[in-house]
Specification:
This protein has 245 residues and is α/β, with parallel strands linked by helices. The chain has a domain of 170 residues: Rossmann fold (3-Layer(aba) Sandwich). The chain contains eight helices and eight strands. Strands 1, 2, 3, 4, 5, 6, 7 and 8 form an eight-stranded mixed beta sheet that branches. α2 links the parallel β1 and β2. α4 packs across α6. The two termini are 16 Å apart.
Length: 245
């Protein structure tokens, strides 16, 4: 794991991000996952849970999702034996105290209600073994993709609140900052129809766009389309927090 100097500050933003990397590139660099029991909170369609479980050796993943529709879809899909799906949110996790090696949250902490974020981090602290890790990746409020998204779903307040909750948990001594990485995550869409399905049509949030807003979203999206669809590089921050031994 990449260590930071003692008392290195957590950073909300960076203007000089150059590294292009997938989430998997980052967490495989920063974490040792083999032989570990890992909880993913807010797993969505569980692509990350499946990827974590499929790599390495002896990995087990408990994948939690608070959206009932998506949870039922996950249960119905073919599942590797080392992935188990559970219904629930980060504020109340049905795991015993000090029973898991790591917790991972991919772009999901900012979906926790702001007033519940401190409770969620205390729950994560409770279930982690001493020395266990919390890995959190969060999109920055910046970039071309965010410029489109914020037309109908402005996440500035919740993204800043998620960072503040992490920083407060570190300041309070629940965790130590083990590593922090900024990177550009590639994201692509074949066409606007796929964007509508994957982003506007998510089941965890009811997006209702007026005809005027929908037309502006389509126009901004079209500006990024080429022969192979629309491609974006989303500015991201990943933090590894360690529960004190």
């Amino acid at each position: 794991m990449t260590a930071l100097p003692h008392h290195a500050p957590m950073q909300l933003l960076r203007e000089d991000i150059e590294r292009v990397a997938s989430d998997r590139d980052i967490y495989e660099q920063l974490l040792t996952l083999d032989g570990k029991l890992i909880v993913e909170l807010g797993c969505g369609a569980a692509a990350n849970s499946r990827a974590v479980a499929a790599a390495g050796h002896g990995r087990r993943v408990l994948a939690y999702e608070v959206d009932r529709i998506q949870h039922e879809l996950n249960l119905a899909a073919p599942t590797p034996p080392n992935v188990s799906f559970r219904y629930g949110g980060a504020e109340s996790i049905d795991c015993a105290d000090a029973s898991v090696d790591g917790v991972m949250m991919f772009k999901s902490l900012h979906h926790v209600p702001i007033d519940a974020m401190p409770r969620a981090l205390r729950e994560i602290h409770r279930i982690l073994k001493p020395g266990g890790f919390l890995y959190v990746s969060e999109p920055l409020f910046a970039g071309d993709f965010n410029h489109i998204l914020r037309l109908f779903h402005n996440e500035q307040r919740v993204r800043e609140a998620a960072f503040s909750a992490l920083a407060t948990a570190v300041s309070a001594g629940l965790f130590e900052l083990g590593a922090e990485q900024f990177y550009l995550a590639p994201s692509s869409f074949r066409d606007f129809a796929e964007f509508e399905k994957r982003i506007i049509g998510v089941t965890h949030t009811a997006h209702r766009l007026s005809p005027e807003v929908h037309a502006e979203v389509r126009e901004r999206f079209a500006a990024h389309c080429g022969a192979d669809g629309a491609r974006f590089r989303i500015p991201m921050r990943a933090d590894v927090l360690i529960k004190a031994r």
